[in-house]
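Key idea: predict the complex, not the pieces.
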Amino acid sequence: MSAIEQTEAARPRGTRLPRRARRNQLLGAAQEVFVAQGYHSAAMDDIAERAGVSKPVLYQHFPGKLELYLALLDQHCESLLHAVRTALASTSDNKLRVAATMDAYFAYVEDEGGAFRLVFESDLTNEPAVRERVDRVSLQCAEAISEVIAEDTGLSTDESMLLAVGLGGVSQVVARYWLSSESPIPRDTAVSLLTSLAWRGIAGFPLHAVEGQLSAEGH
Amino acid sequence: MSAIEQTEAARPRGTRLPRRARRNQLLGAAQEVFVAQGYHSAAMDDIAERAGVSKPVLYQHFPGKLELYLALLDQHCESLLHAVRTALASTSDNKLRVAATMDAYFAYVEDEGGAFRLVFESDLTNEPAVRERVDRVSLQCAEAISEVIAEDTGLSTDESMLLAVGLGGVSQVVARYWLSSESPIPRDTAVSLLTSLAWRGIAGFPLHAVEGQLSAEGH
DNA sequence: CTGCACGCCGATCTTGACCTCCACGGCTAT
DNA sequence: ATAGCCGTGGAGGTCAAGATCGGCGTGCAG
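Result:
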C-alpha cells in the first residue's frame, strides 16, 4: 500500500507530479478501469480521465495499452504466487497448510479493487504475452503445492501435479463464487468447509507412503 | 482464383444450400474461428471466408456478431448442462456418480473443436448477455450437484452449494489442465485419481445426517 | 528581468472491423 | 427458349479507439 497517496477526491486537472508518483497514480487508475470494464471495453480515454490527466501523459509513461496491462498483470501474478508460497511455508502441519493455502486464495480474491480479475478472468487470453503470464502463475502455484503432495504421498510428479491443479482450482473457483454470491456463509466457515473437503480428499492418498503418521486422522 | 476450390468436404464457392443447412454450416465455421481466435480477434470476414460465403449471407442468417456468438454459446451451455445432469442421474451409487460427473467434464472438454473454450475461456465476459449465460450454466450445474450433496449429507443449501461449486470447479479446471498439458496420464487414470480425491473429501461429511456423531474433530 | 526547460493539454490522424449498396448468374414458368 | 426473380459477390461507409503534434504555464538560473 502506498503511504502518501492523495487518493481520489480533489484531483484538480492541473497538478504537476514527479514522474514516479504520476506513474503509480496511473497504474492505480488503470487497475480500477481494467477491473471494472475488462481490457477490451476499457478505453485509454477512460483511464486518463480517471487519473485526471490527458492521454498524451499516459503514453509518456507507458508505450501502449498492452504494456500498461502487462505491468498490472505481472504485479498481481507476483502477489498471488507470493501469497501461496508464504501460506505453504507457514507451517509444517499438512492440514494447516491446506487451510492456510485456501485462506490465501480467499484473501487474494477479497483483496481491494478485485485485482484478481486480471489474473482469473482476463479477457485477453488470446494475447500470447497474457496467456503466458496466466498459465505460468497457475503452473507455479500448482508446482509449489504438488511438491508438498509428492513428498508426503509418494505419488508421481504427474499425478501430484494433477491433484495440485485441482486443489488450486477449487480454491480459486470457490473463492470467486463465495465473493460474487452474497453468501451468508462467513469467510472463515467457507474456508473451513473447503479445508475439510480438500484435506479428507488428499489425506486419503498416501497409498504408497511407507508409513502413515498422517493416518491418525484416518476416518 | 481460377483454381477449383474443391478443397475439403466439397465446398465450391457457388453452391446454393437450403436455409437450415447453410445456417448450420455457418455455425460450424463460426465455432472454428471463435475457438481458435477468441471473440475479439475473430473477424466476420474470417468466418465468412471459412464458410466459403460472402459477408452479406452471414448477416442474412444472424443479426450481428454478438448474436452469432450467443447462438453458439447457448448451444454448448445446454450441452454441458445436459451432460452433467445425465451423469448425475446415471446411477444411484454416490461414488459412481462422482466418477460419472468427473468423466462428463473430461468428455466435454475433449469434445470436438474445443468448444468448451466458449464457455470456460470466453473473452467476452464483460458483455452482460455472455456473463449471464456463463454464470447461469455454472450455477445450474452446481445446483444439480448440490441437490445430491444436500440430500445425502444434510448440509444446508448454502454449504452444499459451496461444495458443489468446488467439485464442479475441480472437474473443469483439471480437465482443461489435463487437456492442455500433454500429460502422459491417460484420461481414465486422471478421472480415477480425481474421483478418489473428491469422493474421499465429500464422503467425509456427515453421511447419515440425522444421527449426531457429528464432527469428532475440531474442523 | 529574461530566457529556458519541463511537464501537461486540446485537437487530430489513422487503423481496423462491423455492417450495407450496385452488378452477376443460376432456376422456373409459360 | 426466354424473361424474370432471387440469392451471391466485391467494394465501400461509418465509427470507435489507440496513438500522436503544436502550444501553455510555471519555476529557476543568470
